[in-house]
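Morning F.,

Quick status update on the modeling queue. The single chain you submitted on Monday has been processed. Sequence for confirmation:
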Amino acid sequence: MHISSSYPLYCGEARSRWYSYPPPYYSGGNWYYATPWLWYDGDPHGSYTYSQWQSKIVTRMNQPAPVTVTMWGDYSVTAGTGTINAQFRNDSTATMAGRVLFVITEDSLYYTGAPNGDLWHNHVARDYIPNQNGQFVSISAGDSLTVTYGFTIQAGWDENRCDIIAFIQDTQLQADSTKEIWQGGIKPVMELIPGVEEHEVEIAPIYAVTTAPNPCVRNTSFQFDLPIGTDYRIDIYDVSGRRVRSLPGFTHQISGSVNWDLTNEQGAKVGAGIYLYRFTSEVLNTSGKVVVR
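Structure tokens below.
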């Protein structure tokens, strides 16, 4: 996110949420809030060094969690509104008291002139539901609780890149500035559509790109639907913005699929990490990411 309202990805609630923790950066006798900075559990575990972030996040994600999260809901494309539900089951042997938070994020945002030289912005906080303070809950051992909220996808957000993240967090601030997040879940907004809606007018076809498997180990496939006879190009970049592979093509049928064997232009295997792609054509221009393990 951007912490200054002068930048386009600014979210006031995200800034307030960030400022609810102690500042991470000490310089010249003062503490400061600094970006870019890796935060999880409300603690500044990282630094300006992007290369350190992935291993820290993977290590944290591999720790056992005392909570199981299940998410479901509904979403109307025409109205831009929906409902999200998250059930939190306490799998521990003690009562769990904390705060449940929901946040809408938008992924794979690309633009030039961004601060700090970052061209790609992923999981950008767009809106906290109902706000950045969340809802206090108490769940007995072995019991579960469901929290439900309505949400709106604002004009200008790409609903195909929007996710809803739900998590439950301890209220106690530990000595290392940690507020333990016990578990979280993520649900793409477009997966909440209950079915094809009936309309009196003809709806133009929706073109999209999906990748599977993702995360991937040996290869991944880009799958898409385009009109027959359409030229397209898939450019794949590393997190520094350097292009590592281009996959141009031409559609001979509506449904297309392009395999990436995880090699660069020189034929060498790329390393583990996050790679970003841009899909360009006459009818569809979109972007996303691929996680290589």
